[in-house]
């Protein structure tokens, strides 16, 4: 089976308390992110890493505080999420919560020809939700790793997971890698 890991927005501005749009408790998923990244690099599993990459005057800042401004420290990914030279990691900069608005994503999915997607990252009910919906639309199995994902609003996250599983997605409570 050709599995592709889908790493959603695991960036400094979201994962750590000093980040511009910190997701409370997100630093707790970093060990799981590190295990997934190491596993993928060791086993030749491609990783698609979506990354917010906003301009300083991005329209999104009308709804959210400035965060992940392209080229700034907070837009970077922590070392634990970088596969390094042994890995097959594809970085997908995006300016919207829905990664499927990026014209580069669909050709990359076609190139990788996944039989299964494994999804993790932040924020469950926002960017992860859009990734799950888009990946389910490919017709391939999609698994969300709950212990490598973090939400802002627990009720909204539960609703997202209910919709995802009702649409045929699978949730794994713990990272099997």
What does this structure look like?
- This protein has helices spanning 12-15, 30-43, 105-112, 124-136, 154-166, and strands spanning 3-8, 47-52, 89-94, 116-122, 142-150, 170-172.
- It is of the alpha/beta class and 177 residues long.
- Helix 4 packs parallel to helix 5 (154-166).
- It has a six-stranded parallel β-sheet, sandwiched between helices.
- It has a single domain (3-172), classed as Isochorismatase-like (Rossmann fold).
- The model has no long low-confidence stretch (mean pLDDT 96).
- It contains five helices and six strands, in the order βααββαβαβαβ.
Which terms summarize this structure?
177 residues, alpha/beta, Rossmann fold, 6-stranded parallel beta sheet, 5 helices, 29% helix, globular
Q: What does this entry show, briefly?
A:
This protein is α/β, with parallel strands linked by helices and 177 residues long. It is built from 5 helices and 6 strands, in the order βααββαβαβαβ.
């Amino acid at each position: 089976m050709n599995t592709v890991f889908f790493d959603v927005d695991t960036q400094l501005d979201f994962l750590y308390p000093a980040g511009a749009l910190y997701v409370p408790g997100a630093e707790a998923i970093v060990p799981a992110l590190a295990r997934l990244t190491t596993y993928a690099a060791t086993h030749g599993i491609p990783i698609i890493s979506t990354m917010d990459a906003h301009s300083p005057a991005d329209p999104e800042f009308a709804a959210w505080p400035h965060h992940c401004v392209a080229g700034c420290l907070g837009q970077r990914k922590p070392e634990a999420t970088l596969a390094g030279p042994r890995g097959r990691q594809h970085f997908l900069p995006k300016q919207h919560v829905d990664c499927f608005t990026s014209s580069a994503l669909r050709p990359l999915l076609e190139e990788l020809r996944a039989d299964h997607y494994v999804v993790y990252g932040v924020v469950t009910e926002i960017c992860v939700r859009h990734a799950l919906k888009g990946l389910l639309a490919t017709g391939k199995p999609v698994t969300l790793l709950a212990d490598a994902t973090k939400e802002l609003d627990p009720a909204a996250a539960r609703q997202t997971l209910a919709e995802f599983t009702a649409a045929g997605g699978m949730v794994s409570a713990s990272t099997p890698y």
